[in-house]
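fyi for ur records
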Amino acid sequence: MRNTWIVQDAGETDGRGCPDDTDERIPGAVCVIGLGYVGLTLAVSLAGQGRRVVGVERNPKVREDLARNRPHVHEAGLDLDTAVHSGRLTVTDAVPSGRTVDTYIVCVGTPVDEAGCPDLVQVEAAVRAVGEQAVDGSLVILRSTVPVGTSRRLLAELRTRHDIDLAFCPERTVQGVAVQELRSLPQIVGACSPRAGARAAALFRELTPDMVETSDLETAEIAKLACNAYRYTVFAFANELARLCERVGVSYREVRETASTGYSRAAVPGAGPVGGACLPKDTAILSRSFADHGSPASVLLDGVVGAHRSTPARIADRVMDRMADLADGTPLVVALLGVAFKGRPETDDTRFSPAVDIVTHLRERHGGLTVRSHDPLVPAAVQGAFGYVPCTEAKDAVEGAHVVVLGTNHQSYADLELRWLTDRMASPGVIYDAWALHADSATSLGGAVEYLAFGEGQPAWTW
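which gave:
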């Protein structure tokens, strides 16, 4: 059932508040298919603007939580309570009839495999379910990230049944501030016709005033992929420079400041491990699109993916090199502070978390690791599923640890004092700061706990 979308039978209700199949369409009603990070924020935001929204979600636990006003994802400003209690948002497992909704918005996932090949099974299944329920004049909006040419192919399949309008309107928000960015970012609208584009733009103008309307579907598809692939590329450049700085024995932060001060053409970003589901996935999809359209593969994009994948292993090597005296037969305790893939904006999403990858590589190098973890937002059950011992307080994770990994740039970890850490750690030990949060405050105090920071080649501070 993983890739099956339920279709609501004519004349039936779904038992969870979804209207039955009548001959009279509710004006402006919208169906959002897939209530993950993308779909839930959109559904709640549209309901907040007065839209009647039917959210379709296959996972029964997620449906149950949403019905009880318990969001399964962390997003600042997500007013689920109002959306549900107002009756404007209902959640079901069934795609409703086109006689009860005007618009279907597909927000399901498109993961990629190790080779970067996208899995479109969920998208195709969702669109197939829509095709079985839509009517002439229905508007279908694809919001899922897809390879170039997918929207037009799916449109052709939909039009074998009905005269349907289709638009590709990609999501470009950052997790943690998605609700805010839905109201501030320009919305890309690619459509199969001027009518479809006008209808999609009118819907999204309820959330944000600025539209970027493209001349075709393919332009919008490439633009979406370009946004995340560009960011992933410049982050890879920064991290490769940081790798060189470590080897040379200089500070990446100083190199960056020196290169960019008063010289905006060299405004490179800060360095640090990069994760999350979107950036690596979209870069891989864009890279494969070259071959899909008969062009030589992108050496640049393939190199970007490779550079990011090597970062956690390199960090683990650096830590274990410093712990060589203890690595042989001594049971090591690692404290991981930060399990999500990032800390600013804060999120509870652990998908493609570089912090988790770092610990995985540490375990490969030393089989006897005990890993205690702490994260302000990631549930203990999720942390435990990684084989960690979750701690409710950071101090409980750090107490007696030989290695402390500051895995995310969450503000709570930036607010810690290094002395607070070293006073609780075992000795000798290593603090690895993946975001150089404390590089400016580190000073030599003597002792046997060494502080290492991403991109910082010198000095090596010890306590």
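Residues 139 and 230 are 31 Å apart (CA to CA). thats all i got for now
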